[in-house]
Amino acid sequence: MLAALGAIAFAGCATSGTAPVDARWLAPAQAVQLAADAAPRGVKGVFALQVRATGRQGEMAYLNSETDYRDQRNLSIALEPQAVRQLGERLGADPLEALKGRRILVDGEARRTTIVFYADGVATDKYYYQTQVRVTRAEQITVQ
């Protein structure tokens, strides 16, 4: 495990245009790559990202590391309804508004998730992969 974190930290030094690598957390690109390599299993850790976009689908809320949630580099934080309520109470505002543009740390498990495209309410054979960290409790998120 330590060797893997060391390799991740070293590999992160070669990237450009990303946040500096810190052995205590994983950047979105690292999370996406590790989750793809581990699929169908997930990768546990602390994930750091700047929230560039937010969204809702049904009762779920999402915080995204990229402006386009379909971008293969995107790390999506999937907030369960209870976590949304808890975060709202803690932040004193709608978490999707309060966290947009902010840097957060998320303790959880990054997992490659298959997202199926629908046409007229029917699943098609088209899909893409999105890397998600599911958040069930507000304590999983630290705002920096």
What report would you give on this structure?
With 144 residues, this protein is of the alpha+beta class. The chain contains four helices and seven strands; from the N terminus they run ααββββααβββ. Strands 1, 2, 3, 4, 5, 6 and 7 form a seven-stranded mixed β-sheet that branches. β5 and β6 form a beta hairpin. The longest helix has 12 residues, at 2-13. The two termini are 26 Å apart.
Provide a brief overview of the structure:
By secondary structure, the protein is of the alpha+beta class.
How are the SSEs ordered, and which strands pair?
Elements: H1 2-13, H2 28-38, E1 43-50, E2 53-57, E3 60-64, E4 75-79, H3 81-91, H4 95-99, E5 103-119, E6 122-135, E7 141-143
Parallel strand pairs: 4-6
Antiparallel strand pairs: 1-5, 2-3, 3-4, 5-6, 5-7
Beta-strand segment tally: 7
Task: Evaluate the radius of gyration.
Answer: 15 Å
Order of helices and strands: HHEEEEHHEEE
> Which stretches are low in confidence, meaning pLDDT under 50 for 5 or more residues running?
1-19
- Multimer state: single chain
Mean pLDDT: 88
Q: Rough shape?
A: globular
What portion of residues is helical? 25-40%
Structural class: alpha+beta
Biggest β-sheet description:
7 strands, mixed
Counting DSSP H or I runs of 4 or more residues, the number of helices is 4
Q: For the record, give the distance between the C-alpha atoms at the N and C termini, rounded to a whole number.
A: 26 Å
Beta-strand percentage range: 35-45%
